[in-house]
Amino acid sequence: MDELVNRMKTLKTVGGGRRAAALALIVLAFGTIFEAFVSADENRSGRAGFASPTPKKKRKQKPKDASPMIVKKEEPTPTPETRTAVAVGTWGADGARLTVGGDSSTLEFGCSSGEINERLLTDSAGRFSAAGVFIRRRPGFQRDGEEPQRLAAKFAGTVTGKTMNLKMTLIESGETIGEYVFEQGRNVRIQRCL
């Protein structure tokens, strides 16, 4: 500050006048203030022996979509299983006859019959399952206008060589209505119920 006053006196004596002195005073004042800031900044940074403040740790910013990317493993497209048609013709069992056709099959029993409305096809293990109708008739003569009872049924089983195991189940009640072992080409006589 003393230096500032001495410079002002020098300017007055040189003949610069009051304006020049005031301008010089302002320039010197700014220079002094600037030096004070620089000095204070150096003190803060630790050059003057003071500990510098601990720098803040920068947080790692998560990306907006932080969910892990899920990669779906594509499953191979299943190849259709090879199915084999049951041999067309007559299959016989004790008290029952199965006639296998190309697109449908029929069953005959003493007091009832069955219709399978699709082709009988087996899988690689020889299993099959088909939908159809079980037809229940009343013993004796049918009266005029009297219709036999037709019930939705499932016909399932296995074929091994010339032998077929067949189980018939009513769909609505789940009742098993018969299990038979048929032999391909076996002729049987069906005793009709009276």
Task: Explain what this protein looks like in three dimensions.
There is one protein chain. The chain is rod-shaped. The longest helix has 28 residues. 21% of the residues lie in helices and 32% in strands. The chain is an alpha+beta fold. It has 2 helices and 10 strands; from the N terminus they run ααββββββββββ. 13% of the residues are buried. The strands form 2 sheets. The chain has an 8-stranded antiparallel barrel. Strands 1-6 form a two-stranded antiparallel sheet. The mean pLDDT is 78. Strand 3 and strand 4 form a beta hairpin.
Order of helices and strands: HHEEEEEEEEEE
Strand percentage: 25-35%
N→C terminal distance: 139 Å
Radius of gyration: 53 Å
Number of strands: 10
Oligomer: single chain
Could you tell me the mean pLDDT? Answer: 78
* Main sheet specs: 8 strands, antiparallel, barrel
State the secondary-structure class: alpha+beta
What characteristic shape results from the CA principal axes?
A: rod-shaped
Physical arrangement of strands within the biggest beta sheet: 2-3-4-5-7-8-9-10
Low-confidence stretches: none
Helix content, binned percent: 10-25%
Number of helices: 2
Lay out the secondary structure.
Blueprint: H1 2-14, H2 17-44, E1 84-85, E2 89-93, E3 96-100, E4 105-108, E5 112-116, E6 121-122, E7 127-136, E8 149-160, E9 163-170, E10 176-184
Antiparallel strand pairs: 1-6, 2-3, 2-10, 3-4, 4-5, 5-7, 7-8, 8-9, 9-10
Helix pairs in contact: 1-2
